[in-house]
Amino acid sequence: MREALNDRFDKVQRRIYIGDGQTNETTYIYTDAEDQDEYLDDTLWLYTEAETADTGLDFIVYVPEEIYTNQIHALHSLIKLYKAGGKRYAILTI
Predict the structure, then answer these.
(1) Dihedrals phi, psi of 40, to nearest 5 degrees
(2) In the chain, how many domains are there?
(3) Which of 66, 61, 94 is nearest to 77 (CA)?
(4) Containing domain of residue 75, as a range?
(5) What's the angle, vertex CA 53, arms to CA 90 and CA 57, rounded to 5?
(6) pTM metric for this prediction
(7) Is 91 exposed, middle or buried (0-12, 13-18, 19+ CB in 10 A)?
């Protein structure tokens, strides 16, 4: 799909790319009452529930703002042609 979008809308610079729908991985931190130990080797970044909640999206299409502004309907049409049935998506500008 990324190749088709770039071929159609951004042939020279090829700036359109596709990312995952959920951007932050969820790591559960236990309370004292739960008495569970969790040992992590790496730095743990804390996110709010809103930042880790299911976004309702399976993938995100990132496009340059000028393409988004001028060809939003054509973008939706081409994405719907190539996406698998039932997959949810959003288009965001870069």
Answers:
(1) -120, 140
(2) 1
(3) 61
(4) 2-93
(5) 20
(6) 0.67
(7) middle
